[in-house]
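Journal club prep — side note

Before the paper discussion, L.F. wants everyone to see what a predicted structure for a comparable chain looks like in token form. Sequence:
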Amino acid sequence: MKRTDTAIKLLTLAEAATILKISKRTLHRMIQHRQIPAFKVGGQWRILESRFQDWVQVEENSAPKDGQSTNI
């Protein structure tokens, strides 16, 4: 997906965790398991906002709808 916005916006773990309403520890665990796209800058994790938004949309679309079971 190509973006026309030239500004690069990075989120800290605290910012991303607040958006997801989870703890920073849980978010860090998800990053370690490569569930969320992130990278280190100067030893600290950062998340590219555009990739984070894309990830949220993919997760939202893959989540089971109300009343649907994930068991087969």
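L.F.'s comment for the group: Residues 10-56 form one domain. Keep this in mind when we get to the figures.
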